[in-house]
Design goal:
- The complex is a heterodimer of chains A (about 300) and B (about 270).
- Chain A is mostly helical and about 300 residues long.
- Chain A contains 13 helices and 2 strands; from the N terminus they run ααββααααααααααα.
- In chain A, strands 1-2 form a two-stranded antiparallel ribbon.
- In chain A, strand 1 and strand 2 form a beta hairpin.
- The longest helix of chain A has about 35 residues.
- The mean pLDDT of chain A is about 85.
- Chain B has about 270 residues and is an all-alpha fold.
- The chains are: A mainly alpha (about 300), B mainly alpha (about 270).
């Protein structure tokens, strides 16, 4: 290589970066990059149109339908304002019993799932080697892909009178719980367990190991570290997990049909009134119960930041 | 905090036990797909391959798989576009009502499926007068799939920051070029992960589907529900379940490889 003339510096008339051609795309790009509000409006318009029209309007109309009624002769919906459905749902003893039962089932499922998810998520996030962790994530995720219905059906066969559960516990004098509310709680806990494990695992993974070591160096015992360091940091993730199990249990009616025997939950009442009874206004009024409960729950937990962990 | 050997072992044993309980019902389904009993008796009275042969010849089952794939693919594409748009809006901008919009995205899965189902059923049938069809199912599914894409993309955007995009803009690239050459390549794996989840969510959905599907539309979950209680069809349902679990290992493997290779690159 010779060291004669160094390359001439780019003259000011010929810039190193060529001037972009003035295509329509370029012009749009210039307009967009100087107007952030326009950019935001374009980004938001399509999703908000979709969610607003399809979802919010539908929800509001559901609320309105609850105040209509069905003509008992023609089966047509009368669009006249009436409180009858709401009064029936609030004061009817059937609805009160079923609401309490549904909340009870949803709470039991949530407690069981969190109790099972905490140790497994902690093991995955803080104890397992990276390789083991990857295997465990797959092991937890795979059942999610098996059909919801098949899993419910699998528990139907597991818990049936000549099923594997009876076969396993009979030698010890045990007995299968059969079909009913306990079977519903077991099956729902089983179905939603991965949905609870994954957010808690993600939350625990975000807790830096250095904090745990610092706590240990400062003399914190295992339990106090868990209670004072890990739990507060993982709390939003735990709440996020409970939103899934609680909400999914509240609206379920198919699992109850498969393993619940004759028990009914709120979902069954809604389903019967949409289908067989063809009374959409009453169904809408019943559907307001879980909506109110869920909004109450979301309102209670919104300060924990759980909604950002879903 | 240093965990003692004992507590490590206890945690490991508890984890293993839970996983065993998680897999036993799936194992029972696998065994039942080869069992001569049509009423799911345990232990199985005999071995047969009959159900597997019949499942792969069942026109109803194959048709249901095709319908489900169609619905899931279209719903996933819609949710990928809408989910990405909304994540950019919420991550890159500060504006009034941002929290309300992020709640709005979560709402379709935070509310029980039956609410979404009955609200859309009421909206399509009573209010709009649209007959239920495969498209009403697609619209319903896309609505609750947006959140899975949103979660993945917004998490990625949060991590990426805007440095590279600003550098690209300083070097003279326009909005589109920056997106195509800088932002999109970094989002690709997040989009794939979100898309896979959305596909899975749609493929398995039953509650919203029962409320929004037209009479001729049979997705795989509807097919399974219709055939589950028929003694001669129930073992075929077991076969379908086994195939689904086996097939599902492929996307999970892809997703894991992606996140694995990304961790190594960092």
């Amino acid at each position: 290589m010779t060291t004669t003339a160094p390359p001439a510096p780019p003259s000011s008339t010929h810039p190193a970066v060529p001037r972009p051609r003035q295509t329509p795309a370029r012009r749009a790009s210039v307009i967009l990059s100087t107007r952030p509000r326009l950019r935001l409006a374009l980004l938001l318009s399509a999703p908000l149109f979709w969610l607003g029209i399809v979802y919010i309007v539908a929800l509001v109309l559901l609320l309105i339908t609850a105040f209509w009624s069905v003509d008992s002769f023609t089966g047509e919906i009368t669009t006249e304002f009436t409180m009858a459905n709401i009064i029936e749902v609030v004061t009817g003893s059937l609805y009160q019993t079923v609401t309490l039962r549904t909340i009870g089932v949803a709470l039991a499922v949530t407690i069981i799932d969190v109790a099972l998810a905490l140790p497994i998520a902690f093991y995955m996030a803080k104890v397992a080697t990276p390789r083991m962790q990857r295997i465990l994530v797959i092991a937890v995720l795979t059942p999610l892909w098996a059909s919801y219905l098949v899993k419910a059906y699998a528990w139907r066969s597991v818990l049936s009178q000549d099923g594997i559960f009876e076969w396993l516990v009979a030698p010890f004098g045990g007995q299968s719980p059969g079909y009913g509310l306990p079977a519903t709680i077991i099956t729902l806990s089983y179905l939603w367990l991965p949905y609870v494990i994954l957010p808690i695992f993600a939350g625990l993974e975000r807790v830096p190991d250095s904090l745990l070591e610092a706590s240990g160096d400062l003399g914190g015992k295992t339990w106090s570290t868990l209670r004072l360091v890990v739990l507060p940091l993982a709390w939003p993730a735990i709440i996020a997990g409970t939103i899934f199990s609680f909400s999914l249990s509240l609206g379920d009616y198919i699992t109850v049909n498969i393993v619940g025997g004759a028990s009914q939950m709120l979902g069954n009442l809604v389903y019967t009134n949409v289908g067989a009874a063809n009374n959409l206004p009453l169904a809408s009024a019943i559907a307001l119960i879980p909506i109110v409960i869920i909004f109450g729950y979301l309102f209670l937990v919104r300060r924990t930041g759980a909604l950002n962990n879903l | 905090m240093r965990l003692s050997r004992l507590s490590r072992t206890t945690l490991g044993v508890v984890t293993a036990l839970i996983l065993v309980v998680v897999y036993v019902p799936l194992f029972v389904v696998l065994v039942n797909s080869f069992s001569t009993s049509t009423s799911l008796t345990w232990p199985p009275p005999g071995f047969t391959l009959d159900w597997w042969v019949r499942a792969f010849q069942s026109a109803g089952a194959i048709e249901a798989v095709v319908t489900s794939v169609q619905v899931a693919v279209i719903a996933t594409i819609i949710s990928l576009v809408l989910g990405t748009l909304i994540s950019f809006a919420l991550q890159r901008f500060e504006f009034f009502g941002r929290d309300a919009i992020s709640l709005l995205v979560i709402l379709p899965i935070a509310l029980p499926g039956i609410i979404t189902g009955i609200a859309l059923n009421n909206f399509f049938r009573t209010i709009m007068g649209i007959p239920l069809s495969i498209w009403t199912v697609v619209i319903a599914h896309a609505t609750f799939c947006i959140v899975t894409v949103f979660n993945n993309v917004i998490a990625r955007l949060r991590r990426l920051g805007t440095n590279l995009e600003e550098a690209s803009a300083d070097l003279g690239a326009g909005v589109w070029t920056t997106f195509r050459l800088v932002t999109f390549p970094q989002l690709r794996t997040a989009l794939l992960a979100g898309g896979l989840l959305a596909f899975a969510l749609s493929f398995d959905e039953i509650i919203v589907t029962t409320f929004t599907a037209g009479s001729g539309v049979t997705t795989l979950p509807i097919f399974i529900l219709n055939n589950m209680f028929r003694p001669n069809q129930a073992p075929i349902v077991s076969v379908i379940a086994v195939v689904l679990v086996l097939v599902s290992i492929i996307p999970i493997y892809i997703a894991q490889r992606l996140s694995g290779s990304e961790q190594q690159r960092r």
